[in-house]
User: Fold this.
Amino acid sequence: MAPSSSEVQVVESFLVAPREGTPTKRLWLSPLDLDCVQNGHTPTVYFYRHDAAADFFDLARLKASMAKALVPFYPLAGRLGVDKDGRIEICCNGEGALFVVARSDELAVDDFAHVKTSSELKRLFVPCVEPPSIMMAIQVTFLKCGGVALGTALHHAAIDGLSAFHFFQAWSAFSRDGANAAVDLPFHDRTLLRARSPPVVDPAAAAVFCSKLDFSGSPEPTATEVLTVTRDQVASLKRICGGVSAFAALSALVWKCACAARRLPPDAQTRVSFPANVRRSTRPPLPDRYFGNAFINLAATAAAREVAAEDIASMAGRIRGAIGRMDDEVVRSAIDCIELADVDGRPPSGILPETELRVISWLGMPLYDADFGWGKPSAFTRAEWVRGGYVYLMNDGPPVVDGGSGDVLVVVSMEAANMKVFEQLLSAKLWPPKSFLVAPSEATPTKGLWLSPLDLDCVQNGHTPTVYFYRQRPGNPAADFFDLARLKAAMAKALVPFYPLAGHLGVDNNGRIEICCNGEGALFVVARSDELAVDDFNDVEPSSSELKRLFVPRVEPPSMVMAIQVTFLNCGGVALGTALHHAAIDGLSAFHFFQTWSALSRDGDGAAVELPFHDRTLLRPRSPPVVDPDAFSVFCPKLDFANSTETAATQVFTVSRDQVASLKRLCGGASAFAALSALVWQCACAARRLPPDAQVRVSFPANVRRSTSPPLPERYFGNAFINLAATAAARELAAEALASVAARIRGAIRRLDDEVVRTAIDHIELVDVDGRPPSGILPETELRVISWLNMPLYDADFGWGRPSAFTLAEWVRGGYVYLMNDGPPVVDGGSGDVLVVVKRLFVPPVEPPSIVMAIQVTFLNCGGVALGTALHHAAIDGLSAFHFFQTWSALSRSRDGDGAAVELPFHDRTLVRPRSPPVVDPDALSVFCPKLDFSGSTEPTATEVFTITRDQVASLKRLCGGVSAFAALSALVWQCACAARRLPPDAQARVSFPANVRRSTSPPLPDRYFGNAFINLAATAAARELAGEDLASVAGRIRGAMERMDDVVVRSVIDYIELADVDGRPPSGILPETELRVISWLGMPLYDADFWWGKPSAFSRAEWVRGGYVYLMSDGPPVADGGSGDVLVVVSMEAANMKAFEQLLYAKL
Assistant:
């Protein structure tokens, strides 16, 4: 809506004076008042809907009640003036406040339901204050809908927000209640905030005070957005931040997101400033109804790198710390500082620099108390342009007790170029969509629960993520399927006996970790997906970290013991994600809780519940601790992780019920665990081709509940396992029968007695517990088998049937194996099959490594085949490799080979021989990327696969002026990666890529040149250029590099490489954040390898993607062969930046 000047017509204007005599005097203004002179009049607008009353907003009643209110609030009827020394003061002369009446026959209240804070509101509904010395002006505008807009303008030199709302409460009460109005009288003596004589500024106090804001005259355009943070999100934020105020939590969130969106240099000093009410901080405190300005500006500072690295709780701590330091000395020092400074009454110009943020909070102020007798306002808003760098926090509607939502509006103004990223970052951190704490339904013990050494040994494991999937009953869907009220009530009831799960991790007086049983509650998250269904996860790997991202709640703060997420899927089913801290319980205890919770939901008061046993001192160490060497020999005290970058994949094998039974017989009646563990151990050692003398070890957690003397109670609740191990030389494992290998495992288990358990406990007590999660993978000599066999995985029936599937929702570390039942027990209709989740390679190991090509054909249990290939890159590039596979498959497909159409390769590589002598053209070299510099960074990386649809690719190409799909996609990824990484503006960013030279040499190479025929090109730009340019310009940089590739460039590159030392060792590390490498397989015949039995259903790289690398490849066969035409973008980058990258990518698509 773009209102014209005729939309509102002024009907009349007049002055409203106090109805009785008031003091005629000059009101001295404190330094805190004088510091606000430059702010002028604060414009606001209230909107009121018509309540059908005949006297709705009766002007006579409004004027009479204002005249009455101005008697105690007489300064608002005065004028700004100066005393004989030139100091600004209020001349209390009873002249009156300006009252304007207006009408609009075009505008309605609903026209402004979603309006942003803007100067347009001020133009329409706030009176023009002439002369500007008037302290208060009011405009009542009658709208065409029958409603009213009440615009206000009060001079900030006279009062702050609290005092302004005090006046509106009084005026509206006089209008509404007449003689019965209860009004708190204002206190006018501002000398309580007089400067000291002489003024003294305490340096320590000044450190927390923000004496001045520096505005820049930047012409950069700004944008203003109003973002809504829900009541649940505010509560979640406050919890994450350790129970700080909503102001501190929201300010910390905005500060962190703004710094990230602005991509400040790491050493840049950033500052968030905010006005703080001093009424309770002076000594003595100011009177309750002090009328005037009673705030000072505080600030918290941090380097940009600190803001990026710290969590929100730490940022909120900085803000809370500044507030906590505000005492009488800080207030007096601030007053004295302002008194000593020259007060400039001119309003500031410009915007705040990117290192500054100013947060002004109206949270908790009585914005909606202005009921003049016709109901509370339906909306309230500032009516002014928000200066760049300013943020306003205000309640979105009346308080919750009056029927309000409790949501908060965050009004943000910042550089337009950064606003989109800011919104994305804010939305990403405002998690979850709906969450709350479920506390026990009855009082529970409040205490610190001592943790045994076996508990402490699990601290590093953090929260164990799992997911249950539930289907609606076919043909008979339950109307109350996964009713949240029922689930919450049942959980609250279950948490009474299982009260440690409602607490959080803490430390005792000696620094030992314990569970603080405080009844605070477990986190319960409700989510919804309109895209995902239970069937989408039929074939998902049980170890997929994608499941964790989708369905397992993020636990904030991480000290919380339990978190649950119920996700309603588009098929009508549910995914129930769980995260329970391993320091609190092991698997048996976790499933005990889920059996109880589900039974209470399913059976209500008739549920049969077995109570947990909480006394963990049964596993207390001996005094003094004693480690028996013989007992220690079977215990696995520690796993050594290696930082290997070897590529591995997670594979799930199904071992049928009959095969398990056969294995057990073969192993002399060993348990399924021992038999399967022996099988996996023996096969893994053989596959790894370990040296014969290598000492190999298989370790596994073993339940000690029946091994202590006396045994632990049946329902011991906590961690009650120790890690056992069996060892052997590789040659022994290779030579032994499977029964002998199983016997080694059984032998370790049989040795588990009270002495072994006590020795393990004492050993753990003596070592320092490292709470950090381990990094890396297990070396090839190690295997760790974790069994969930026969655990009640499928007992969690909440009243709507057992889960259709259950899975671990986490990446499986290299060297780990999980054993779990594939479905419910046989007695409940399950198959009795076992899933073996293990790291396994589809691609054959190449020994000796001088072999040029190796192929592995793996026959899968579904009847399909995985064809793994390994071709040495020194021999051929991708085009040549696919030429070979086209030929091989064609010869196989034709059966006798005679009918195959084969294009012969060209083998003479002297066509790309260096010149003699080699000549490197400096100009040609400028487009060449001679070397990639890898960093030894230990920063964790993440790999994600994004699908870009055929239509999106076409749209991108059009947007980029008709460039190739490669140039358009590379530009998109480059620009998003630089933004997500928040590079310093002057940082030189580079994207490099291999370019096919077959058509660029003179003469061109033969069509089927067989070998490597590419050079590495690069495009560069400063980070600020990438941020400022549109996508077409970025694509133009890439296309420009490609267009410069001619014979001179190719020959210069060949000569350059000839002159350089070739290092045959594979690089280590990842690319630095300024580098991106894009490798394109677009247009390559990935799906031509039809050996007679059809084209491949899928094709993929089978290797870890190095940090900083991007692969582009077609998602399926060409469109002509029935493919989608979509493109897969495989991106590996710093894990901390991946979420922002993903958001930016999707925002631009």
